Structure formats: structure tokens, C-alpha cells
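Saturday, quiet lab. Running sequence design on the C-alpha cells for the scaffold JK sent over.
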């Protein structure tokens, strides 16, 4: 498996992964179409790292500044992470999160943050293994299938100073 920066031509395959990986465990919007436009002007390939094995994409992570503000440029945020259901449990997710952290560090970021639904146990375990700590919780931030779900804010320091 290799991790590399995404290319524009990866879009259709990443849209299929997004469609297959979708569930209310991890998502707060309805399932995207299998042929949805994946990249956009505000969501360019350079912000994505993909995991690839034998020419097949297994998953992706996106990291980008949380806001366009100059005063916020020392922070990056994981703004998307998905692994194909049939490629899970083999360390692909962990490799993608580590790659996102390395990319953020290489861009000069001091911290990397993320938001995860409280009921998304697989993702929370993964982030914990990758050194993320819980910064806080927004109680009942979403209503999913008739139940209120907390939103958990996590972060990891990328520098030693
Ligand atoms: C969360 C998600 C990205 C994890 O991806 P993954 O590739 O399965 O992650 P990993 O393989 O690194 O870790 C998953 C488990 O496999 C285990 N594992 C990793 N490599 C392994 C190996 N070689 N052999 C056996 N088990 C292994 C890990 O220890 C981990 O165990 P856990 O279930 O006790 O935590 C994936 O489930 C997913 O796409 N979910 C839907 C989208 C989502 O939730 N995104 C995050 C939104 S905030």
C-alpha cells in the first residue's frame, strides 16, 4: 500500500468509496450518489491523501485549514476520512491519519483538529491510537434517526515547542 497526494482523475473512484463508506454512524448528511462530483473549487485534490494498493484506491483523508483566516493558518483540520468497507481493519485508516498529520506538519501547522460523532466508536478509537485527545464535546449537536448525538472535538499537537 502506498499513500500519495490525490489527483483529479481519482475523483470518480473516491466518489464510489464515499458512497460505499457512508452511514449515519459517521455522516450528518444523506448518502452521496455513487457518481457525485468529488472534488470542487473549495475541495481540491491537493488537500487529499489517498491509500492505493495494486492500482486500486482503498480510502482517503482530507486535511485543510479550518477557516481561511490568516490568524488560523497554524492549524489544520481533518475534514474527511473514509476507507472502503472491504479494506477496513488492516491499518489503512491509521496510515491515512498519520499521513494527514505529516502533511499538516510539513505545511508548518502546530496543531491538527477534527470533529467526530460521539457514537462513531471505530473512528474515535483510531484517532485515540493516533495521539488525538478530546478537547470538548458539543452536546446533542446533531439529531440523527430521531436521536440526539454529541459532537466530539479532538486535536493533536504537531510540534514539540
Ligand atoms: C474509521 C475508519 C476510517 C477506520 O478505517 P480502518 O482502515 O478500518 O482503520 P484501521 O485498520 O487503522 O483500524 C481499525 C481496526 O483494525 C485494527 N487493525 C489495524 N491493522 C490491523 C491488522 N494488520 N490486523 C488486524 N487488525 C488490524 C486496528 O487495531 C483497529 O482496531 P479497533 O477496531 O480495535 O480500533 C473506517 O471505519 C471508515 O471509513 N469509517 C466510515 C467513515 C468514518 O467514520 N470516518 C471518520 C469520520 S470522523
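Result came back. Writing it out in full:
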Amino acid at each position: 500500500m502506498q499513500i500519495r497526494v490525490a489527483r483529479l482523475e481519482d475523483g470518480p473512484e473516491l466518489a464510489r468509496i464515499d458512497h460505499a463508506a457512508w452511514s449515519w454512524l459517521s455522516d450528518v448528511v444523506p448518502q452521496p450518489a455513487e457518481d457525485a462530483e468529488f472534488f470542487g473549487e473549495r475541495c481540491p485534490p491537493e488537500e487529499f491523501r489517498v491509500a492505493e494498493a495494486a492500482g486500486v484506491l482503498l480510502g482517503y483523508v482530507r486535511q485543510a485549514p479550518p477557516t481561511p483566516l490568516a490568524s488560523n493558518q497554524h492549524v489544520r483540520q481533518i475534514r474527511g476520512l473514509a476507507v472502503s468497507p472491504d479494506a477496513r481493519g488492516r491499518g489503512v485508516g491509521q496510515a491515512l491519519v498519520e499521513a494527514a498529520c505529516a502533511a499538516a506538519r510539513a505545511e508548518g501547522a502546530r496543531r491538527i483538529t477534527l470533529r467526530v460523532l460521539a457514537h462513531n466508536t471505530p473512528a474515535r478509537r483510531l484517532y485515540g491510537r493516533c495521539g488525538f485527545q478530546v478537547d470538548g464535546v458539543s452536546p446533542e449537536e446533531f439529531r440523527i434517526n430521531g436521536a440526539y448525538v454529541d459532537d466530539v472535538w479532538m486535536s493533536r499537537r504537531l510540534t514539540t515547542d
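Notes for JK: Residues 2-113 form a domain with the Aminopeptidase fold (CATH 3.40.630.30). The mean pLDDT is 97. Ask whether to fix the surface positions before the next round.
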